[in-house]
Amino acid sequence: MANNIVVIGTQWGDEGKGKIVDLLASRCAAVARFQGGHNAGHTLVLNGKKTVLHLIPSGILHETGMCYIGNGVVLSLEALEKEIEELADVVDVFSKLRISNTCALILPTHIALDNAREIQRGAKAIGTTGRGIGPAYEDKIARRAVKLSDCANSKILKEKITQLADYHNFLLENYYQQPTLSVEKIYQEVQDSYNRIKEIVTDVSVSLANINSNPDNSILFEGAQGAMLDIDHGTYPYVTSSNTAAASAATGTGLGPKDIDHVLGIAKAYTTRVGSGPFPTELFDDIGQKIATIGNEIGASTGRARRCGWFDVPVMRRAIMNSSVDSLCITKLDVLDTLQEVKICVAYDLHGTRLDIAPNNPDDFARCQPIYEIYEGWLSTTASVREYDELPEKARDYLLAIEELLGVKIDMISTSPDRNDTIILKDLITE
Ligand code: IMP
Question: Ligand 1 center to residue 155 CA distance, Å?
Answer without folding.
Answer: 35
